[in-house]
Every structure is written in C-alpha cells, then in structure tokens.
C-alpha cells in the first residue's frame, strides 16, 4: 500500500473556530495539514481553545496517516455538538507536529481565517 504524504505548514494569519456563533478558539500559531486530495485541515494549539467547552467523547480516532487520538463534544449556545473536535494523542512519525493540537469538523463548527 502506498504511504500517504502529509504536509504540515504554519497556517498564515489568525484563525478562529466558532460553535453556534460563539468563538471557542483563536490562534495565530495554527498549523495547516494538507493530505492527499482532501480539503486542508487547520489544527489549533490546545491552549488556544477554550477547554471549558470540550467534553471527552468515547469515540477514538484511528488514522493510518496521522496516528491515534481522541474526540471531543463541543458545548455551544445551541447545545452539545457531538464529536466536533479531535486531538492526535499518539501521532505517527509524519504527524509529530500535530501533537498538542486540536482540529475541528468543519461540517459541525466554523473554522475560518480572520
């Protein structure tokens, strides 16, 4: 099986993540992951995301390319958004830079450069 190529870059500018209209994270130290022909993903340093809105999920992340991790539910003004965030806790060699960072499901919350 061919090995997937991960490309990780510093994400230019300041990025925010909003859940239900409320800003739950903001960073000018985010990373951009480019993988295969998938849309890019922005990873936020964990300390730049409001920990109070995160609830651990029993769902686990297992990815051949990035490694293993955990999911989180996100509390928003409209209620709980299930499995909206994830963090790589056991990164593959190619994804070591992502350890200590968190990404979000762009279909469930809004991630944008401001």
UniProtKB/TrEMBL annotation:
Location of the DUF427 domain: 16-106
InterPro entries in the record: DUF427 (IPR007361), DUF427_sf (IPR038694)
Protein name as annotated: DUF427 domain-containing protein
Species, as recorded: Roseinatronobacter ekhonensis
